[in-house]
Amino acid sequence: MQIKKLLPYSPRNITLYQIAFITRSRSLPVPGEPINNERLEFLGDTVISTIISEHLYRLYPEKNEGELSKLRSRIVNGNTLNEIALKLKLDQLVQYTYHSENQHKHIFGDVFEAFIGALFLDQGYKKTQRYFNQILFKKYIDLPEILETETDFKSMMLVWAQKNHRKLFFVTQESINDNGKKVFRSLLQTKNSILGEGNGNSKKEAEQIAAQKAWEEIHPD
Q1: What is the pTM of this model?
Q2: What is the DSSP code string of the chain?
């Protein structure tokens, strides 16, 4: 079975992994709630975020919370997870309806999250973390390359605004934190609403984080 070849450990409950590859469009019609991978995806998202957070915390002891959050966001996003899923060839196992989900560009990244959710339930946190450290970080996640890639969410939001005939503006405030250092809080706004909020050690960083949050809110997939 292909799924067993993918697993780093002998599975205790193979059904969990089988469900991880069933998307919403191919839900199993059982009485009550249909069976698909959405709950495992939810769980896997949290597990991945926790493992990545701990890894970055140990790898970069000199970085503060804001810097670590920014680094994590470059790894734990749809594009990166999708690429990891394709490297693992998870796309060959996914059950989905082409016409309804072929435009969902992060579908395989979602399946990767569900797979990690299944691994966590089946093997526990320590073994799931070991899988990341011994396999994914060595073979499939090029951490330096990911962290060196700067995504300009501010420019992306401005392009989005032009296409959708919206006017965007940043409201950024400077203050002094308890350590006597300058910190910045930025709001990305339209005329009637706040689209994103960001905090950083510079005006540029705060605006980028605000733009990123706005972009992710507009493009949840």
Answers
A1: 0.65
A2: -HHHHH-SS--S-HHHHHHHTB-GGG-B--SSSPB-SHHHHHHHHHHHHHHHHHHHHHH-TT--HHHHHHHHHHHSSHHHHHHHHHHTTGGGT-B--HHHHTT-TTHHHHHHHHHHHHHHHHH-HHHHHHHIIIIIIIII--HHHHHHPPP-HHHHHHHHHHHTT---EEEEEEEE-TTS-EEEEEEEE-SS-EEEEEEESSHHHHHHHHHHHHHHHH---
Q: What is the mean pLDDT of residues 156-175?
A: 87
* Tens-digit pLDDT profile for residues 70-117: 778 778 877 788 888 888 888 888 765 544 444 455 788 889 999 999
Q: Is 221 a catalytic residue?
A: no
Superfamily of domain 2-148 in the CATH hierarchy: Ribonuclease III domain (1.10.1520.10)
Q: Which of 45, 122, 205, 207 is the catalytic position? A: 45
Query: Does the active-site annotation cover 178?
Result: no
Q: Which of the residues 38, 41, 110, 113 is marked catalytic? A: 113
